[in-house]
């Protein structure tokens, strides 16, 4: 059903708008005509992209056969940051809709932001579905924020050759560690330790050893973590983990007990969306720095060399992307700003000769805006890349085309009203003695002149004031 709905809605959006625009332009300028071939290309592009959209979308999760358990797998690989927290939250919602028996989070992280870590932990401890956090594969780690997440799970497991801990809070600005006041540091340390005690205590883990990871920055190997009762299992693979958990009774965060039934599990991996992948890539500190420099440099060149256009477009888009990645501006607001910037760039493309540079900048801005802004509260999914591109390209073509024709219309000389009479030759029908009557362009007009002009003479209109023509004799007589 996705493709027919999108295709029909797309036609209802673009065909009437193109027709109305064409009618408007035809009424304003008789010689201006819509390029029908260009419109057809735009609509065909839309149709093709709408067809590609569902193909780019995530496939539905397989339905487990009767008697099998569904296990949803989520991968944490990298820094804990807001985009990852959003992905985890959406994956938990997907697991709940699919009535999963277990959520398995495999993890390899050096740590990350405290706010994002807490958001993930909140979803874990309030999840109606049991959650297993597994530090895997061998050689991975669950350091800093990852240690908190590991201890918050219903089941904490590690692969051989992994480590965890080193969870002391640090303060960073722009990717660099900074020194803070000793009182502030002690407050942050005590609060972090208390938070970890509350989590590990509820899970029945070793509170004293867990606290040392915060107060002493202590780290633990897999065997040390198991010996100190920080984790529940050491297993070499997810298959071994699920086999050992089948039939195991666990205590949930609220104190209730549940027995896991994981016979013949069907494992479903939930991958990050295009939007989340893009925003996660955008949040890299090195890239953010480059975007900031390119943005400032591009705008500086445009301001000092007006009319170059390309540096200004690149700088503007780079600066907007920097604001998104650095989370200076909320994502929804930034999506709106990007789409508004796209419309402005399309209008400028119609007005100035940029050889498509402004239009390309507008397409990129609208594409990024669509991927960032639109998200369904029901499915948790956003606009697919295929649909975003398919709607953006025809919209850009039609907008630039209509704006260019409209501007051409407004630049045409006025061919109606009294202004057309200036310079015209008229025949005097009633002698002008102060005022009289003249015949010009098929109409009789009252005219005035500085001298007497007999009937039958010809005059030239020099000025129009209201319904009075000011004329001078031409020397011709009928």
Could you explain how this protein is built, in words?
This protein has 478 residues and is an alpha/beta fold. It has 3 domains: 2-58 and 275-411, no CATH class; 70-272, Alpha-Beta Complex (2-enoyl-CoA Hydratase, Chain A, domain 1), CATH 3.90.226.10; 418-477, Beta Barrel (OB fold (Dihydrolipoamide Acetyltransferase, E2P)), CATH 2.40.50.140. It contains 15 helices and 18 strands. It has a 6-stranded parallel β-sheet with strand order 10-5-3-2-1-13. A 5-stranded mixed barrel has the order 14-15-16-18-17. Strand 2 (102-108), helix 4 and strand 3 form a beta-alpha-beta unit. The N and C termini lie far apart (78 Å).
List keywords for this structure.
15 helices, 5-stranded mixed beta barrel, 3 domains, 478 residues, OB fold (Dihydrolipoamide Acetyltransferase, E2P), alpha/beta, 2-enoyl-CoA Hydratase, Chain A, domain 1
């Amino acid at each position: 059903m996705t493709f027919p709905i999108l295709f029909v809605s797309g036609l209802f959006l673009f065909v009437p708008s193109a027709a109305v625009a064409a009618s408007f332009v035809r009424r304003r300028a008789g010689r201006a005509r819509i390029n029908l071939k260009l419109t057809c290309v735009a609509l065909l592009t839309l149709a093709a992209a709408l067809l590609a959209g569902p193909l780019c979308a995530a496939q539905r999760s397989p339905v487990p056969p009767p008697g099998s358990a569904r296990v949803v797998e989520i991968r944490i690989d990298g820094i804990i940051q807001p985009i990852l927290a959003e992905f985890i939250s959406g994956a938990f919602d997907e697991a709940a809709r699919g009535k999963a028996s277990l959520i398995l989070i495999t993890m390899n992280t050096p740590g990350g932001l405290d706010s994002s870590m807490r958001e993930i932990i909140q979803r874990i401890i309030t999840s109606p579905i049991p959650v297993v956090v597994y530090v895997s594969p061998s050689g991975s780690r669950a350091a800093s924020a990852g240690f908190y997440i590991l201890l918050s799970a219903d089941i904490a497991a590690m692969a051989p050759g992994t480590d965890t801990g080193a969870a002391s809070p640090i303060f960073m600005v722009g990717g660099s560690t900074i020194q803070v006041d000793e009182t502030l540091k002690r407050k942050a340390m005590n609060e972090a330790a208390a938070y970890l005690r509350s989590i590990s205590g509820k899970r029945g883990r070793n509170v004293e050893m867990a606290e040392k990871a915060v107060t002493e920055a202590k780290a633990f190997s897999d065997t040390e973590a198991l010996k100190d009762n920080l984790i529940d299992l050491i297993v070499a693979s997810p298959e071994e983990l699920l086999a050992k958990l089948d039939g195991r009774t666990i205590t949930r965060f609220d104190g209730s007990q549940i027995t896991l039934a994981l016979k013949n599990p069907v494992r479903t991996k939930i991958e990050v969306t295009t939007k989340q992948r893009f925003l996660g890539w955008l949040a890299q500190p090195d890239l953010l720095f480059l975007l900031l420099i390119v943005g400032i440099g591009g705008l500086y060149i445009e301001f000092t060399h007006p009319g170059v256009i390309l540096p200004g477009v690149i700088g503007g888009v780079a600066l907007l992307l920097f604001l998104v990645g650095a989370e200076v501006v909320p994502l929804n607001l930034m999506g709106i700003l990007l789409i508004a910037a796209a419309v402005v760039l399309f209008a400028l493309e119609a007005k100035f000769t940029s050889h498509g540079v402004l239009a390309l900048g507008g397409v990129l801005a609208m594409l990024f805006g669509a991927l960032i802004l639109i998200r369904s509260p029901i499915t948790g999914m956003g606009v697919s890349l295929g649909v975003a591109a398919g709607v953006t390209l025809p919209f850009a073509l039609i907008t630039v085309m209509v704006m260019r024709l409209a501007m051409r219309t407004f630049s045409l000389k006025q061919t109606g009203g009294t202004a057309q009479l200036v310079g015209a030759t008229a025949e005097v029908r009633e002698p002008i003695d102060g005022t009289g009557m003249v015949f010009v362009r098929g109409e009789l007009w009252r005219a005035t002149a500085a001298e007497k002009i007999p009937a039958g003479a010809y005059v030239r209109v020099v000025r129009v004031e209201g319904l009075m023509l000011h004329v001078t004799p031409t020397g011709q007589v009928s």
